[in-house]
Design goal:
Layout (H helix, E strand, L loop, with lengths): L8 E4 L5 H12 L3 E6 L3 H12 L5 E5 L5 H15 L4 E4 L14 H25 L6 E8 L10 H20 L5 E8 L13 H11 L8 H11 L11 E4 L7
Parallel strand pairs: 1-2, 1-4, 2-3, 4-5, 5-6, 6-7
Length: 252
């Protein structure tokens, strides 16, 4: 997959670390100019921009809380002013409350839905308006196994990810006339800083190693190539799908 995305312009939300950073670097390896979004990780954003620029592509960092409508508006204005277009939108930024079902409240629900599901809806609307060339564009969201499998303390985030997967299918149908492909990638147990926030992180890692046929947990670099493929012209016949990348974990 060398330079298949040369001349394309991409936005990766939550692109300073973990899966988002791995995706941004992979897209740059393939020739895409990349904007990474961040909110708190200013130093990590600066480091990632340097890594991207070292690959001889244009790279910028845009600070925005994707749970905030005004921030989203400003972010896409920066993208339009800097790139003049958008070919690829990666909906990766995520956050949420990790509690048992009976412990979270309506504020937990609203914040988690805003930064996950609502962010996809609003960002996809803005992205579609920048995907104005005749070749359309690509929208890929990062989800998880949470919508279909039980994960301790993950009920709220799992519900938000389920909403993302449903929106993926509706967006895929309604944006098809604009030649925009919309898909999602569901990762299994991926060892990232976000996973380390789980109260039972070590138990999750040990369990995943035991019950994943490949006998290891996933890394961000396991997800990035699949996302990159969905951004290629060769993947234009894939529409409205959730691609599971989990080393076989969901099979057993």
């Amino acid at each position: 997959m060398a330079m298949e995305l040369k001349g394309k312009c991409a936005l990766v939300t939550g692109g300073t670390k973990g899966i988002g950073r791995a995706i941004a670097l992979k897209l740059a390896d393939m020739g895409a100019n990349v904007a990474i979004n961040y909110f708190k990780s200013r130093d990590a954003a600066a480091r990632t921009v340097k890594e991207l620029e070292a690959k001889k592509v244009k790279a910028i960092a845009v600070r925005a809380n994707v749970g905030n409508t005004e921030h989203i508006d400003k972010m896409f204005k920066v993208i339009g002013d800097s790139f003049g277009k958008l070919d690829i939108f990666i909906n990766n930024a995520a956050a949420g409350t990790l509690k048992p079902v009976l412990a979270f409240n309506t504020d937990d629900w609203q914040k988690t839905m805003d930064i996950n599901a609502r962010a996809l809806l609003l960002c996809a609307q803005k992205a579609a308006n920048l995907m104005t060339n005749s070749k359309g564009g690509k929208i890929v969201s990062i989800t998880s196994l949470g919508p279909t499998r039980y994960i301790p303390d993950y009920a709220l985030v799992g519900a938000a990810k389920a909403a993302i997967e449903t929106l993926t299918r509706y967006l895929a149908v309604e944006l098809s006339s604009r030649n925009i492909n919309v898909n999602a990638v569901a990762g299994g147990v991926i060892d990232t800083e976000s996973l380390q926030m789980f109260p039972k992180y070590k138990e999750m890692i040990d369990y995943a190693k035991k019950f994943t046929p490949i006998r290891r947990v996933g890394q961000p670099e396991d997800i990035a190539p699949v996302v990159a493929f969905l951004c290629m012209d060769e993947a234009k016949w894939i529409q409205g799908q959730v691609i599971i990348v989990d080393g076989g974990y969901s099979l057993v």
